[in-house]
Design goal:
- The structure is a single chain.
- The chain has 238 residues and is an alpha/beta fold.
- It is built from eight helices and seven strands.
- The protein has a seven-stranded mixed beta sheet, sandwiched between helices.
- The radius of gyration is 18 Å and the shape is globular.
Length: 238
Amino acid sequence: MIPSPLRRVLKPVNHVAEKNIARLIGLMPKPGGRVLVIGGGTLGNGVDALYRSGADVEVIGMDLYASDLTVAIADGHALPLADGCIDAVVIQAVLEHVLDPGQVVAEIHRVLGDGGLVYAETPFLQHVHAGAYDFTRFTASGHRYLFRWFDQIDAGPVAGPGTQLLWSVDHLARGLARSQYAGRIVRALFFWLRFLDRMVPRRYANDCASGVYFLGRRSELELTPRDIVDYYPGAQRG
């Protein structure tokens, strides 16, 4: 059992998610709306506000396994829900673990009602986690195009190049020592690298983020390939 202070060093609170979940609740189309949490079998980092009594929402946790938070067991590729019956969807650190992210996002679009919201966090520069069940990564532009049937409210890096570097030194230590435990020790020793994220301007962080987020509203208009080239939010504009 890892002591609490060390756990906070190894996995700090996701303040980006905290801020965006608060925004999502405030933007809900109606009070008491339904929020579908895909991958909701465990409590996501920074999404606690959804489950507090003060949040006037109905949370539907959906995952592939049963837990205290799971309301329904289902596959995100084929959600067992009627069209337009959900007011908001949260999908955090899930899309890298599905075989067809586009199909999952299409299902999110289908079950959301008019003005429905989505909040997604997905890795960009992260090493393999969950072993054989880790398939995909997205740049900021690729993530935006994945959600091309949504109007963007906000998007950006969840964590920047300092956090990405921390992933690298962790996995370098694992490889050299042939030990995941060695990686955890090195991650604890170099925890301060993540604070370098604060020194990197957003446009640069978009090019080297550990993970990216998207907060958007359901639309009937699709972003075109030309639109997504023009969208590029990084520091390498010509």
